[in-house]
């Protein structure tokens, strides 16, 4: 009995020493500055309905590298070019994983997509598939005819509505959705003209809006896990409902594609990205087997990512131009000079329109689709600028704040496309002053497609129409408020009037 008592005492002493060592290490950590957290909720009380703006305000007080606690989890927020470069390039491999969230679990087939899947063999394989198969330059070039046809359909639809106010986002979402559906799915499954349409265009757009909203909300269970079962905001219930709606659609798509594969047998040739994914799923040499739910998760990712970014960016661009008619006039002058008034703008000549390209960049600076990049997760302990960033820390990069940094941008709150004329700054992930698509290994794999659709759509909208606000509305009255999600669209959809200015036969051809 005496030996047992001594053993227990020795264990207690050892545990005490270990605890003191752990506490001592924690005390020695030089964490970045930040507000003092509250018990249980941490700093969640400081985050409003527009988290990127809340974090921007905090960064003005605590600096470009902040340490916060969201409930039970440590969070570091980078709001400078140097911090972005550290997280997305210098130590990209340390921050390449993703935190576990309800959105990843319930809306992406348990983290089976490209966006939310954690770092590992599955994600590395997914990235290779995107770069080498789905978004290769050759494949995107082969789909140019689709982008041209759908942009022409957009112009034709606006011509038919000439002189009357239209909700521009509806038209832009339609062209983006049709482009991506034809490229990814092989046809416009949500078009009313398709006999096999399983959802209406309106329903599908609503599903996409809900997907982006729910992937960007601050679900309380993601920060305080023991409250997750309560679903206090009802987000998980909505995620599960949305997942069922998408799954019904995606099952239909995969069934149709597999039927054609069986029907054509050895003569089968892949026509779209779903065909490519299904072929890859059959490849016995894949490092990780691509299951059916993985194909559905990838397909959903491709559709959502390709639709939202283009429509949101072009709507913000037209909004800014309506508030700045002098910029609109300069763009019109460039288009008339370079393209003339007898034809439409072609993809291959966008590079000859530096002012239009500058409008796109300036729009992305002021209104990035994702003002905070999708959260990353620190895989190991690192230090930046003398501060410790422990393993397991969630990392946010606030590109909205970087886009408004007065040390980088002259008059950052003003819409000035001229700042990009002659500037080497681009949006391809190499210049950390402008990161609309992110950077590093987790950069949006379809950014080149999104950029093509944005530039082609905007150039032709400006070339083909005179734009004005509805009667009785003044430019200074145009609201520029936003709503937050995984993307950040206008709070009030833009209503505008488009007046055709080119020969009528161009719109109807």
TrEMBL record:
<dbReference type="GO" id="GO:0016705">
    <property type="term" value="F:oxidoreductase activity, acting on paired donors, with incorporation or reduction of molecular oxygen"/>
</dbReference>
<dbReference type="GO" id="GO:0005506">
    <property type="term" value="F:iron ion binding"/>
</dbReference>
<comment type="similarity">
    <text>Belongs to the cytochrome P450 family.</text>
</comment>
<keyword id="KW-0560">Oxidoreductase</keyword>
<dbReference type="InterPro" id="IPR001128">
    <property type="entry name" value="Cyt_P450"/>
</dbReference>
<protein>
    <submittedName>
        <fullName>Cytochrome P450</fullName>
    </submittedName>
</protein>
<keyword id="KW-0503">Monooxygenase</keyword>
<feature type="binding site" description="axial binding residue">
    <location>
        <position position="444"/>
    </location>
    <ligand>
        <name>heme</name>
    </ligand>
</feature>
<dbReference type="InterPro" id="IPR002401">
    <property type="entry name" value="Cyt_P450_E_grp-I"/>
</dbReference>
<dbReference type="Pfam" id="PF00067">
    <property type="entry name" value="p450"/>
</dbReference>
<dbReference type="GO" id="GO:0004497">
    <property type="term" value="F:monooxygenase activity"/>
</dbReference>
<keyword id="KW-0408">Iron</keyword>
<keyword id="KW-0479">Metal-binding</keyword>
<keyword id="KW-0349">Heme</keyword>
<dbReference type="GO" id="GO:0044550">
    <property type="term" value="P:secondary metabolite biosynthetic process"/>
</dbReference>
<dbReference type="InterPro" id="IPR036396">
    <property type="entry name" value="Cyt_P450_sf"/>
</dbReference>
<dbReference type="InterPro" id="IPR017972">
    <property type="entry name" value="Cyt_P450_CS"/>
</dbReference>
<dbReference type="GO" id="GO:0020037">
    <property type="term" value="F:heme binding"/>
</dbReference>
